[in-house]
Design a protein that fits this description.
Length: 189
């Protein structure tokens, strides 16, 4: 019988190099949380604060990621995640795509009458899921990152609530994604 694996306390702390490697992820998560809090403010119209927080968050995440571009490879959380030049390059691609999406969608959302501040938060969470997906070295981290990204994108697909085609597409994507997630999780187990 195999020995029971326990959590070792030394694995729960981060070295300064590991904490430095996680700054882009913390930056995006913190910005998404702050933007989510800005969504519920009743004192001001939440569109502009949420948009500005989201854009500043993505730019800050890109700067933090670019600063880590030439740093040595860091394995994190008992080799469940890795931050290397490959994952850093893809983080820049994902954050650049999120920035372009945020900037382009402002006028579109105004024109279509869909200006809800949750849109920007969902874009940030989907970018965070993609960033984690690029750094995953373990199937559990891969699954969690895929779900963070997918749940945000399910809502973004159905963002036009009054449109039947949008609702249908969101429901079909949710069912297909749920089945694919179940197969992935079953295969990983």
């Amino acid at each position: 019988m195999s020995e029971l694996i326990t959590i070792r306390p030394e694995l729960l702390s981060l070295s300064p190099e590991q904490a430095q490697a996680l700054i882009p992820y913390f930056w995006i998560f913190g910005g998404a949380t702050l933007a989510l809090l800005a969504c519920v403010l009743k004192a001001v119209r939440p569109k502009w604060p949420t948009f500005i927080i989201s854009v500043v968050t993505v730019i800050g995440g890109m700067v933090a990621t670019a600063a880590a571009l030439n740093s040595p490879t860091q394995e994190l959380f008992n080799r469940m995640m890795v931050v290397d030049s490959f994952s850093t390059l893809f983080n820049l691609v994902f954050l650049g795509s999120a920035l372009i999406t945020l900037l382009v969608s402002v006028r579109y959302l105004d024109k279509e009458g869909l200006q809800h501040p949750e849109y920007y938060v969902l874009v940030l969470f989907s970018a965070l899921g993609m960033m984690l997906l690029g750094s995953a070295q373990d199937l559990i981290v891969l699954f969690i990152a895929l779900e963070i990204m997918s749940l945000a994108i399910y809502v973004l697909v159905g963002f036009r609530r009054a449109d039947r085609r949008s609702n249908e597409a969101a429901m079909k994507y949710f069912i297909l994604g749920s089945a694919a997630s179940a197969v992935l999780l079953y295969g990983a187990a």
